[in-house]
Amino acid sequence: MAKNAAEPRTAARRPLLQLTGVSRSYGEREVLHPVSLSLAAGECVALLGHNGSGKSTLLRVAAGRDAPSKGTVVFDGIPMDENDPRVRARVAVVGDTVACYPDLTVREHLLLVAVAHGVADASDWVSQVLDGRMLTERADALPSALSSGQMQALLLACALVRPRDLLLLDEPEQRLDPDARRHLADLLKAELADGVAVLLVTHHTDLALDVADRVVVLEDGKILKQGATRKVLAADLAARTAAGSAGAR
Ligand SMILES: Nc1ncnc2c1ncn2[C@@H]1O[C@H](COP(=O)(O)OP(=O)(O)OP(=O)(O)O)[C@@H](O)[C@H]1O
Question: Ligand 1 within 6 A of 54 CB?
Fold first, then answer.
């Protein structure tokens, strides 16, 4: 899969993912009001907002897992649909549900995903990803023997062991300890440098400040504010800077 590290992250580029006037209703209730959003290669947009504000709904619609009630989602010129093999080959999703095989080890899960996606040297690649996700010691464990943080690491590893141009992540920081969260931020920065586009649902403004070019804050299914991360999260950034200088004293 093409990953272009040469293009600057901030330059105006053709969107890889384009949502136009997308809304989602359940019955009579519109839980996501019309939202438009675009994401270019090597760019990260973070979706923030309180519980129930519509972040996961927006991510599922963006991933083609859920059809919008109105509006369109287009991935690189293709109508977004998770069943389309062109989409499955290039879009990796870590959603809000855990799905795994109880009788396959951590390594076997990763091998399964890598082989299914036609990765060459799958075994070597799996070992690298296990190492990068700090799962090497748990490689032969079954899912039932994993801690919740290790399970989260496995779900993320499944997305990283396969080719991808677009990475859609729903609260990947959940259940991770502070070290693992820092590791996650480094990993996402490496993805962006590799040209992967990242749409990230998170409750951690620190993570958004570290990795996101832009943020969209949702409230009751509507965009409350959006824009450049440091501008929208200026208050959080000031608090973080103040805490940093207090700690340094
Ligand atoms: N399948 C569904 N049927 C009916 N209502 C739903 C369904 N899925 C989500 N909702 C409702 O849509 C609203 C938005 O939910 P969503 O999961 O997108 O919020 P969220 O911002 O991701 O929340 P959280 O931070 O708690 O994960 C909520 O009020 C939720 O109850």
Answer: yes
